[in-house]
């Protein structure tokens, strides 16, 4: 019984001793870390603000080693986890070897991202950081629509199919842009369409290195209407006829086909049109070629159903 009591007392003394020892070591460690130290630190870096007219063609260093003068707590914390530092490339300089950023500029930018009580003593990097870039160009390229459109019976397009945008912006090296003349859409097939359509079409974009396209899709729109037809008989007017010649055409009137919405063609008459035929000299076929000289401009389709008329001459 006595032996067990003595054992417990010894264990308690050991625990107390270890507690105060740990407390002393912790106090010593905190005291040490509170001091100022010089240490090396490898920090990850990211590069930003490169001019839109330049393209980075070779990777830059992902990490830079620094010599810092700072408190022990900061140095220890940075050894455990270091946030990436940003290096702006908006102040690049240029010499015959290419674009570069000076050691002084690098040091200035990194120092601004450190705490006020931390000094940047040294930068373990070459005197000059060369940035391999290629000049970029911008080109507006027309879009060519690959569309197979089949309208339903008695339907037609009110206007042309539109593409929006009709051109896309291509950014890349000049050597790449010189090879691009136009951009085609993916094939579209629309069958038996009886109403307007508005859809998205992807573009077939050449896979060129360091080349960007904007946008990568276009909108394709078309207005489809049901149409009616009306045939109007219009007299033939002879032009360039010598004063001593009279002629008679066969037939004396020709047919014009008008196609549009019923409300637009309902009230059309022959007076809305002029069909002329220039009199040819030395013609032995006794035919006159016809052409429409006047017609309403807002009618979708106006077709002359005869291409020529025959005539006979009666001299006075």
Automatic annotation (TrEMBL):
Name of a matching Pfam family: YbbR
Highest taxon, organism lineage: Bacteria
InterPro entries reported in the protein's UniProt record: c-di-AMP_regulator, YbbR
Stretch forming the signal peptide: none
Name used for this protein in its record: YbbR-like domain-containing protein
Native organism: Sediminicola luteus
């Amino acid at each position: 019984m006595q032996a067990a009591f003595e054992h417990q007392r010894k264990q308690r003394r050991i625990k107390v001793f270890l507690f105060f020892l740990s407390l002393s070591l912790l106090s010593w460690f905190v005291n040490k870390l509170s001091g100022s130290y010089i240490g090396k630190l490898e920090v990850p870096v990211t590069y930003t603000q490169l001019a839109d007219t330049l393209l980075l063609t070779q990777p830059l260093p992902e990490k830079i080693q620094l010599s810092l003068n700072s408190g022990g707590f900061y140095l220890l914390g940075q050894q455990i986890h270091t946030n990436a530092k940003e290096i702006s490339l908006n102040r690049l300089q240029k010499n015959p070897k290419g674009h570069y950023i000076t050691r002084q500029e690098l040091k200035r930018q990194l120092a601004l991202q450190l705490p006020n009580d931390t000094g940047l003593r040294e930068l373990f990097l070459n005197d000059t950081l060369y940035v391999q870039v290629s000049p970029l160009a911008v080109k507006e390229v027309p879009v060519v629509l690959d569309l197979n459109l089949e309208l339903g019976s008695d339907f037609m397009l009110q206007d042309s199919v539109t593409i929006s945008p009709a051109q896309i912006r291509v950014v890349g090296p000049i050597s790449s842009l010189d090879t691009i003349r136009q951009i085609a859409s993916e094939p579209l097939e629309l069958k038996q369409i009886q109403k307007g359509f508005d859809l998205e079409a992807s573009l077939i974009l050449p896979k060129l290195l360091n080349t960007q396209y904007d946008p990568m899709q276009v909108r394709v729109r078309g207005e489809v209407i049901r149409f009616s037809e009306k045939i109007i008989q219009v007299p033939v007017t002879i032009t360039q006829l010598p004063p001593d010649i009279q002629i008679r055409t066969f037939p004396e009137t020709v047919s014009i086909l008008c196609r549009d919405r019923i409300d637009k063609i309902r009230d059309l008459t022959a007076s809305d049109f002029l069909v002329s035929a220039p009199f040819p000299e030395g013609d032995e076929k006794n035919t006159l070629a016809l052409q429409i000289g006047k017609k309403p401009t807002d009618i979708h389709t106006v077709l002359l159903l005869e291409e020529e008329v025959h005539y006979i001459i009666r001299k006075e």
